Amino acid sequence: MIREIMKDTGFLSLKAEPAAPEDLPTAADLLETLEAHRETCVGMAANMIGVNKRIIAFDNGGTCVVMFNPEIIKRSAPYQTKEGCLSLPGMRDTKRWKSIKVQYQNEKFQLRYKTFTGWTAQIIQHEIDHCEGILI
Fold first, then answer.
1. 71 catalytic, yes or no?
2. Tens digits of per-residue pLDDT, 59-86?
3. Alpha-carbon distance 13 to 129, whole Å?
4. Buried b / exposed e across 39-67, counting CB within 10 Å, b at 16+?
5. 44, 23, 39, 36: which is closest to 109 by C-alpha?
6. Domain extents for the chain?
7. Which ranges of 4-84 would DSSP assign to H, the alpha helix?
């Protein structure tokens, strides 16, 4: 189901709760909502659709990927950039890392590790910030 985009900064500032298998329907809604906003959005976190769970979805070179309980465990090569967000108006300055290693769970809740670089790494960092209640 395509969900409305959350704009309440109080809700968006909450740290997300861990996701569990019963949250799979939220992940499906997140993917559908991301697809509906594909022209202006490359990633979303569950709190952006009103669900305070640690789930993100993002475009990874044309394929949408979902991660449950993602955490950045390694980062290198910091840089400054500007980002926008569907949930908040305008653009903001932020620090990002060119390369990140992420620990996450897949849709079967199996633990995975993967390194991302460049644009995809930046998207993931933005969405993990959402999970931490950090407004960008």
1. no
2. 998 899 999 999 999 999 999 999 999 9
3. 10
4. eebbbbbbbbbebbbbbbbbbbeeebbbb
5. 23
6. 9-131
7. 9-12, 24-36
- Tell me which of 17, 107, 127, 132 is the catalytic residue: 127
Q: Which two tokens stand for residue 45?
A: 């976190």
CA angle 64, 119, 11 (to 5 degrees): 65
Which residues, listed in sequence order, are joined to residue 112 by a DSSP beta bridge? 104
* Structure confidence by residue, pLDDT tens digits, 33-52: 999 999 999 999 999 999 99
**The two structure tokens encoding residue 67:** 């991660």
pTM, two decimals, is: 0.96
What length is written for the chain? Answer: 136
Nearest CA-CA partner of 124 in 54, 58, 33: 58
What architecture does CATH give domain 9-131? Answer: Alpha-Beta Complex (3.90)
CA–centroid distance for 108 within its chain: 18
Q: Calculate Rg over the CA atoms of the chain.
A: 14
CA–CA dist 8, 3 (Å, integer) = 14
HSE (CB half, 13 Å, CA atoms) of 35?
12
